[in-house]
Each structure stands twice: as structure tokens, then as C-alpha cells.
Specification:
mainly alpha; elongated
Length: about 160
């Protein structure tokens, strides 16, 4: 692949990394697609090996991002319904107040759902804080996977 092609792939990977933090695009899917396209155009064994390593990073962190925080939420007794309400209001908030509405919507939605469930503001707020920490942890795990995938591609593309 020529230099321009690799620069385009690098740009798409950077956009994917940004998409893991600001969920405008499905970040890891964008990275996966960019590296897959690169491997196809590269057409070498080394290119496909890099693609497999990138895929492993994405899959491992994808599993971890749901299991680790999910276990923490279950242990804290926070039901999935409260998280779903928080996520729905996060999406609504994102469109009402671009970018920061995402965070306001999640926190507000989770708090409302927990207040309706436990009927105590203090307990609802504690659950909201715990849920927010779990979502931040999930996002950091996904970001780590995206960065590892991007670094793997960059090193592999530089070596090839």
C-alpha cells in the first residue's frame, strides 16, 4: 500500500479512537474495518497477522468492557433497567445538548430510574455514582483496546 493509503488508514484509526470516547461513530468497528481494508490491500502474510492481532485486542477488550463493569453493577445491586434508562436519556441528551448532554442524560436517567426503584434520593445517588464509574471503566477498557489496536497497526505498517 502506498503512503497516501496508509495515511488514510491512520486517519480512520484516529477517528475510530475518538469514537470510543465520544460515541459519534462505533469506534472499534471503524478501526477493525480500516485495518481489514489495509490487510486486504497489503495482501501479505504479515499484514494478515497484524489484522489478527488487532482483532484479538478488539475482541478481548470488547468482552472485558461488558463483563468487568457488569459484574460490579450486579454486585452493587443496580439493575440493568436503570442502566438502560440512563443510556436512552444519554442518547436523547446528546442530541438536545451536543456532547455534554450525553453525560448529563446518562447521570440524570440513571438517577431517575434508581429514585423510582429505591424511593430514596441518597441511595439513588450512590447507585448513580456507581453506575457512572462502571460506564467510565467500560469506556476506558474500550479505549485501551482501540489504542492497542491502533499501535499494533502503526508498528506493523512501519515494519512492513
Amino acid at each position: 500500500m502506498n503512503l497516501l493509503g496508509e495515511l488514510i488508514v491512520a486517519l480512520v484509526i484516529v477517528i475510530g479512537i475518538i469514537g470510543t470516547v465520544l460515541p459519534i461513530l462505533p469506534g472499534v468497528i471503524v478501526i477493525f474495518g480500516a485495518v481489514l481494508a489495509w490487510a486486504i490491500f497489503e495482501g501479505t502474510t504479515q499484514g494478515w497477522m497484524i489484522f489478527l492481532i488487532v482483532t484479538a485486542f478488539i475482541v478481548i477488550t470488547g468482552v472485558l468492557q461488558y463483563t468487568w463493569p457488569g459484574r460490579s453493577l450486579r454486585e452493587a445491586g443496580i439493575p440493568t433497567r436503570s442502566i438502560v434508562v440512563g443510556l436512552i436519556l444519554a442518547v436523547v441528551g446528546f442530541f438536545v445538548i451536543p456532547v455534554i448532554g450525553l453525560f448529563i442524560g446518562f447521570i440524570g436517567g440513571t438517577f431517575l430510574a434508581e429514585t423510582a426503584r429505591v424511593r430514596q434520593a441518597d441511595a439513588a445517588w450512590n447507585a448513580t455514582v456507581h453506575a457512572t464509574k462502571a460506564v467510565v471503566l467500560s469506556t476506558l477498557i474500550q479505549l485501551l483496546g482501540a489504542l492497542a489496536a491502533g499501535a499494533t497497526w502503526a508498528i506493523g505498517a512501519w515494519v512492513l
